[in-house]
Amino acid sequence: MRLQWDPDHDPYGNKLTRRAVQLGLKGEVLKNFACKIKDIQDITDFVKQQKLLLDRNCLDDLLVPIETVFKISDNELNNRIGIQC
């Protein structure tokens, strides 16, 4: 696996001060994951609806994932990955 911290963005694409963790798969893990894909869905219409809401500044109506903060209780791990508590 790969772990990297990327800039987070608001719905308009502007960079935020907080960072977002991005996890990537590679090697055998990626191969095993890819072989288990059962279905691919076309979400073009959904994305177009969301874009209309964004263009109308209806941010409360956007369908976005619920975000939660995952707090790491292991101080050694926090130090190793650069998280300040």
Structure notes:
The protein has 85 residues and is an alpha+beta fold. It has one domain (2-81). 33% of the residues lie in helices and 21% in strands. The protein contains 3 helices and 2 strands; from the N terminus they run E-E-H-H-H. The protein has helices spanning 27-35, 44-55, 75-81, and strands at residues 2-9, 15-24. The protein has a two-stranded antiparallel ribbon with strand order 1-2. Strand 1 (2-9) and strand 2 (15-24) form a beta hairpin. The chain starts with a strand and ends with a helix. The mean pLDDT is 88.
Category from helices, strands and their pairing: alpha+beta
How would you write the strand order of the largest sheet? 1-2
Rg from alpha-carbon coordinates: 17 Å
Number of domains: 1
Structural features:
alpha+beta; 2 strands; two-stranded antiparallel sheet
Summarize this entry quickly.
With 85 residues, the protein is α+β, with helices and mostly antiparallel strands.
Note the topology.
Elements: E1 2-9, E2 15-24, H1 27-35, H2 44-55, H3 75-81
Antiparallel strand pairs: 1-2
